[in-house]
Structures are given as C-alpha cells and as structure tokens.
C-alpha cells in the first residue's frame, strides 16, 4: 500500500483488539495518539527519545517504544497497551507481585515495566535475577530502587509457572 | 519534543522505495527501526520533508547462509540476529554483539541496515562488520554496488551513501575462526560503550594463533581493524605473555580522542584491558565447549 499521504491522515488502528479510526498528522507519535486521541493514558511519556521506557507498548506482541513510532506506521499492526493487562479488581500476576513487593511508588514507570515483562515472562518463563536486571535496564524508575521490582518479577514468574511463591 | 511536519510514505517494495527516494531527492529520509532516527526527529536534529518507511520491505528481513558467506538483509532486527540459529552457528560473534545493543525493546525494532547507515562510532554492528570484513550491498539510481564496511564508514555519522541509495544487505565472509569474543565497557548497562573489542581467531594443533581478526570501537571516529596487531599474533602461542604483548601493542597503536570527560589515557588503558579480557573469554569459551 502506498497511497499518497496528505495531512492529516485518516488511520484505522487496532489497539487492544479494538479498531479505532482517527484523523491525525503524520508526525504524531504513537504515544501521543494513544493518550490524546484514544484516551489510553496508561502509556506514559517521559523522555521521548527511547531511553526511559515509560511509553513501552507491544507492537505485534513485541515490546517497542511508542515515542519512537508514528501512529501512521501502525496501520495493519496490532498495538497492545497496559490497559489490556489486568484490571483494578483482577490484577495480573505481575501487577499483584509489584503491589506485594512494593515495586512502585509514584508508578510513573510502572506501565512500561508491566508491558515489558508481561511479554518477557512469556518468552522466558524462568528467568534468573540477572536476566531480569538486564531487561529491566531498559526501564528507568526514579523512586523505587530496582530491588523490589526484580523481586516482584521473579515472584510473578514463579506464580505463573504454577509454583507457590 | 515533537517532530517537524513531514509527508509519510509506506512503499510496498524495494523498487517503490527507491522510486520515492528518487522523486523526493534530499528532502526524503528512509526510516527502518526508528531507534536512532526517532530521537533525531523528536529533537528536530533531522527535519526531512518526506519519510519513507521501509518496514513493509519484508524481503529485506532475512538471514541466509551461502557456502562462503552469511547474507543478512538490511531490515533484519537486532533481536533476530541475536537468536537466529544460522548466526549462532556461523557467526556467534555477530549474535553476541547484537544481543548487547541498547535495551530489550530497542533490539526488537532496530535494524542492521539502520545501524550501519547511522554510523555511531561506538555502535556494535559497524564494529563487527569492519572486524569481519563484511561488504554492504547498496541499491540506488545507478543500480547495485558493493562496498567494504571499512570504506563505507567514513567518519562519525558519515557514510558512503549517495542520493537515492538504500542499503539492502550485508555479506559476511565465511568461515571465520571458531574462537571469538565481544567485550565492551560502558558506564551504565545498555549505554553505548566507551570502548569495545571484537575478536575472532583459530588455533592450530600446536595451540598457535591463526587468522586473528581484531577490531576496536570507541577509539576513533570509525571502528578500527588492526592488521598490524593481527600480523603480530600470527603463529604465536595464545599464552599469557602473548596476550599481554598484543594488548599493550594495541594500546600503543591507537590514538583516542582526548576529552575532559574521557581522557585519552583512560580509553587506551580500557582498550588494553578489554583486549586481554577478550582473549581470555575466547579461550575460556573453548575450554567450556
Ligand atoms: C535508548 C537507546 C539505546 C541505544 N543503544 C545502542 C547501543 O548500545 N548500541 C548501538 O549500536 N545502538 C544503540 N542504539 C541505536 C540502535 O538501536 C539502532 O538500532 C540503530 O542505530 C539504528 O537502526 P534503526 O533500524 O532503528 O534505524 P533508523 O533509526 O530507522 O535509521 C537510522 C539512520 O539510518 C538510515 N537508514 C535506515 N535504514 C536504511 C537503509 N536500509 N539504507 C539506508 N539508510 C538507512 C535512516 O535514514 C537514518 O538516517 C540505541 C538506541 C536507543 C533509543
Ligand atoms: S518516553 Fe518513550 S522511552 Fe521515554
Ligand atoms: S515508581 Fe516512580 S518512577 Fe518508578
């Protein structure tokens, strides 16, 4: 498909299994379209250059920075945001473990961490603490200290494997 | 920080992408993974009038072994390089270097073509391409040409890419030595390395070094391969004395930039230490195998 593109574009985006039609400029970042146009404010925006990880979403099931992606690029792809992962009355195993282990304070970084590890624990259900730290290095947290987040991820992994933890 | 306005194009084939580049000339910029161009657009360090999205050119996302080379399409992502069985088998050095790029989410999107075109002097894949003598395949208005990675990379973020050209693949010659290591030092995990070392060699029946390839990143405006050190190593036992001698000679052979943040003497010592470590980890890996 190479339809000529005039601003604003009319896009059909698939987010969390629902199709949304939006009219946005080509230069609008996926993170901004999710927040401003779709009201999905769980995707946070920190640095806008790929460093902090707060804007991480899944694109076709794989973690990616929404601030380094244009919404226009997402037609024909599947975007999944933190809104699709657990809900207040039914937290996911990872969210529950973050809660129990005090893995968050202000929670600004938390959506990016949840999105990243919901995917990662499917790819690697039994990670070592070192592997968790390696992946977590892509998500900056200013207030908690990473110790509790690592503990939460390992606890969630054990529970997801069906072990008591 | 938001990008300046541009017109977005999503070609469905290489031919269409090349035609768009030709039509829009220097105002057009290709985007692959967007992991380097994205920040530059957001900070308005780049303000192309036309963005040509390469992500639908799935023909450029491929890893293929031919008898004497490993051919990797320009749109192959770092995560795939790090995990592809063909890479693990024939060029594990390339896989290990790809696995160490930035962060997990960055590796899912970033591509080898984008990394070479961006030409950050501290980046992993340009270093591996230079060390292993890779060739870039480039398509453009004048047809297809091939250029050695060492000639392609001209200076910091400056490459031999002419108007309307796209990198389509990298070709790595095979075989290479079965002993290898990639060592890098950065201040914070996932940051660009201050200095990095890529090493590949074989040993003969008597344990003597054969066909050494040694490359250094972060010590010049481009990754360097060090033929004089490679020659110095040829036919010597890979023992402690040799390794220390090669490391010291490497440190003496480079002239890193001197800055207040990272003095030249620091990079030099780092290079020496990393060369020793690289030999040691290559040899340890052999014993473990
Ligand atoms: C937080 C963070 C940390 C990072 N850490 C590292 C690191 O440690 N090591 C490292 O090496 N890199 C690192 N990177 C950058 C790296 O991940 C990128 O993958 C890579 O440098 C660019 O690849 P890309 O496919 O994303 O290219 P893009 O960003 O899409 O493009 C980069 C440049 O290449 C051009 N281009 C892209 N494809 C082609 C092609 N086929 N032909 C011609 N020109 C082309 C574009 O026009 C642009 O000028 C990091 C990035 C971020 C955001
Ligand atoms: S806002 Fe996207 S990585 Fe920081
Ligand atoms: S909990 Fe505040 S930034 Fe992580």
What are the defining features of this structure?
heterodimer, A: 165 residues, alpha+beta, 5-stranded mixed beta sheet, 5 helices, 5 strands, 32% helix, elongated, B: Uridine Diphospho-n-acetylenolpyruvylglucosamine Reductase, domain 3, 3 domains, 5-stranded antiparallel beta sheet, 4-stranded antiparallel beta sheet, 12 helices, 14 strands, 37% helix, binds flavin-adenine dinucleotide, binds FE2/S2 (inorganic) cluster
How would you characterize the largest beta sheet of chain A?
Answer: 5 strands, mixed
Q: In sequence order, what are the helices and strands of chain A, one letter per element?
A: EEHEEEHHHH
Overall 3D geometry of chain A? Answer: elongated
Overall pLDDT score of chain B:
95
Radius of gyration of chain A: 17 Å
CATH class of the largest domain in chain B: Alpha Beta
Structural class of chain A: alpha+beta
Main sheet of chain A: which strands, in order across? 2-1-5-3-4
Number of strands of chain B: 14
Tell me what portion of residues of chain B adopts beta-strand conformation.
15-25%
**What's the number of helices of chain B?**
12
> What is the CATH topology classification name of the largest domain in chain B?
Uridine Diphospho-n-acetylenolpyruvylglucosamine Reductase, domain 3
* Shape annotation of chain B: globular
Biggest interface? A-B, 34 and 36 residues
* Overall mean confidence score, pLDDT of chain A: 95
Count of beta strands of chain A:
5
H-E order of chain B? EHEHEEEHHHHHHEEHEEEEEEEHHH
Strand content of chain A: 15-25%
Task: Give the biggest beta sheet of chain B.
Answer: 5 strands, antiparallel
Radius of gyration computed on alpha carbons of chain B: 19 Å
Topology:
The complex is a heterodimer of chains A (165) and B (289).
Chain A: E1 9-15, E2 18-24, H1 30-37, E3 56-59, E4 62-65, E5 78-80, H2 93-100, H3 110-123, H4 129-136, H5 146-160
Parallel strand pairs in A: 1-5
Antiparallel strand pairs in A: 1-2, 3-4, 3-5
Helix pairs in contact in A: 2-5, 4-5
Chain B: E1 7-9, H1 14-24, E2 28-31, H2 37-42, E3 50-53, E4 63-66, E5 69-73, H3 78-83, H4 85-90, H5 92-99, H6 104-109, H7 112-118, H8 124-131, E6 135-140, E7 143-148, H9 149-152, E8 153-155, E9 158-159, E10 166-173, E11 179-185, E12 195-203, E13 209-217, E14 224-225, H10 227-233, H11 240-253, H12 264-288
Parallel strand pairs in B: 1-3, 2-3
Antiparallel strand pairs in B: 4-5, 5-10, 6-7, 6-10, 8-9, 11-12, 12-13, 13-14
Helix pairs in contact in B: 5-8, 11-12
The complex binds flavin-adenine dinucleotide and FE2/S2 (inorganic) cluster (2 copies).
The site of one FE2/S2 (inorganic) cluster has 12 residues of chain A, from loops.
């Amino acid at each position: 498909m190479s339809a000529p593109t005039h601003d604003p574009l009319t896009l059909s985006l698939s987010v969390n299994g629902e199709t949304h039609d939006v009219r946005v400029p080509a230069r609008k970042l996926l993170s901004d379209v999710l927040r401003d146009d779709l009201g999905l404010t769980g995707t946070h925006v920190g640095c806008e250059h790929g460093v902090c990880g707060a804007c991480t979403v899944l694109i076709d099931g794989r973690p990616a920075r929404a601030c380094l992606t244009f919404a226009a690029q997402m037609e024909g792809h599947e975007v999944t945001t933190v809104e699709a992962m657990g809900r207040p009355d039914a937290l996911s195993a990872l969210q529950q473990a973050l809660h129990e282990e005090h893995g968050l304070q202000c929670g600004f970084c938390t959506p990016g961490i949840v999105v990243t590890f919901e995917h990662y624990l499917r790819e690697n259900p039994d990670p070592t603490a070192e592997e968790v730290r390696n992946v977590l290095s892509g998500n900056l947290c200013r207030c908690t200290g990473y110790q509790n987040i690592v503990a939460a991820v390992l606890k969630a992994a054990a529970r997801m494997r069906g072990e008591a933890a | 920080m938001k990008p300046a306005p541009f017109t977005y194009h999503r070609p469905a084939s290489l031919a269409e992408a090349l035609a768009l580049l030709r039509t829009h000339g220097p105002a057009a910029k290709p985007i692959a993974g967007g992991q380097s161009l994205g920040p530059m657009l957001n900070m308005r360090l780049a303000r192309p009038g036309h963005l040509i999205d390469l992500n639908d050119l799935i023909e450029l996302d491929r890893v293929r072994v031919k008898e004497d080379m490993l051919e990797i399409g320009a749109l192959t992502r770092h995560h795939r390089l790090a995990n592809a069985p063909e890479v693990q088998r024939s060029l594990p050095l390339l896989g290990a270097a790809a696995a160490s790029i930035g962060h997990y989410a960055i590796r899912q999107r970033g591509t080898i073509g984008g990394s070479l075109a961006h030409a950050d002097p501290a980046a992993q894949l340009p270093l591996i391409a230079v060390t292993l003598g890779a060739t870039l395949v480039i398509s453009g208005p004048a047809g297809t040409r091939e250029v050695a990675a060492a000639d392609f990379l001209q200076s910091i973020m400056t490459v031999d890419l002419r108007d309307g050209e796209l990198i389509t693949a990298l070709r790595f010659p095979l075989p290479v030595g079965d002993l290898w290591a990639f060592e890098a030092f950065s201040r914070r995990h996932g940051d660009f390395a201050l200095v990095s070392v890529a090493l590949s060699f074989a040993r003969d029946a008597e344990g003597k070094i054969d066909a050494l390839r040694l490359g250094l990143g972060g010590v010049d405006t481009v990754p360097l391969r060090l033929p004089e050190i490679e020659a110095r190593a040829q036919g010597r036992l890979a023992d402690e004395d040799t390794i220390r001698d090669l490391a010291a000679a490497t440190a003496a052979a480079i002239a890193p930039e001197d800055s207040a943040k990272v003095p030249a003497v620091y990079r030099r010592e780092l290079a020496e230490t990393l060369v020793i470590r690289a030999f040691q980890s290559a040899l340890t890996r052999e014993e473990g195998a």
